[in-house]
Amino acid sequence: MKKFLLSFLCVLGGLLFGALILKLSGISPVEAYIVMWKGAFSRPSYLAYIIIRSTPLILTGLSVAFAFRTGLFNIGAEGQFIIGALSAATFGYLFHFSPWIQIPLVMVLSMFIASFYGGLAGFFKARFGVHEVISTIMLNWIALYFSNFMVNLEGLHKPNTETTEYIQQSTSITFFENWKASDAGMAWLEQHPFLNEFMRPPLNAGIFIALIAVIVIWLLLKKTSFGFKLKAVGSSIEAARYSGINVNKKMTQSMMIAGGLSGLAGATHVMGVSKNIAILAAHEGYGFDGIAVSLIGSNSPFGALIAGLFLGTLKYSGQKIQSALEAPSEVISIMIGAIIFFIAIPVIFDKPITKLAKLWEKK
Q1: Quick one: CA dihedral 135, 140, 141, 143, positive or negative?
Q2: Eight-class DSSP state of 301
């Protein structure tokens, strides 16, 4: 209960801080938040875009949260996301199987490679004592430039562009992609206005994969001895070691699972939305946003789900205030930063949380 109240008050504090910035910019906060609300919930297509935008955030947030629960700080979710996306773009283009084989094969391979990449940080810490923050930051940059190198390879690079070739149609996890463009599909959708608009964006199976991942990680941490050992290492390395747990092995395994989750985020994004990858001038940010998702969600699987949807809504609707009110788009980043700031110093909310928790218990 206290964790929920802390997250709620931190979000509220971030929104109030964002309102202050808007006011100082000469823009009505009330008007801006009304625009954001309408920009998120007034049309079916907006809801669809929020789901699409939230899916990779849920998975990278889950990745960071899992590592946190096992005592590791996975700053490398961004690099693992890039590796997963690169793997999906590569195998999705090179393989030519039926969808029943192609989709799971590409997804599993992308997860496996990203898992190995994430596991490097765990191995470096377990074997050489290299802190995971340092190693994952370096691995992020390696992933970025390795991705750019791969995009330019002959056979994968699309001529006269800065992107890879599109993945095969059999790799796509977008719902009803061909049917929506057919005469029968267009005729049916015209008779159902809500679904016609809701299905216009590239809705895909990624959100269901993210939900399954949340449930699996929750079961792993709560209901298995393997999860208990991982959490024991996170709680106290020395106590875990004295109880007979192979601490070094568990560190590597934890980062491998975290890396696989971030890689899954990259794979679903390519297979469901972008269909290829481009040369990156800088990091895309899904992995770094995953850190915010994890912190807002109190480092729990279901918390990451809710926080991912919230952050996806905030980022998508925040774009609307720039065009409608000419407000600086950086306000949304300021809000998110303020929320993380409040989470980092929870002592601010100790008294109100304690009072609210007591009132809740009495009721």
Answers
A1: positive
A2: H
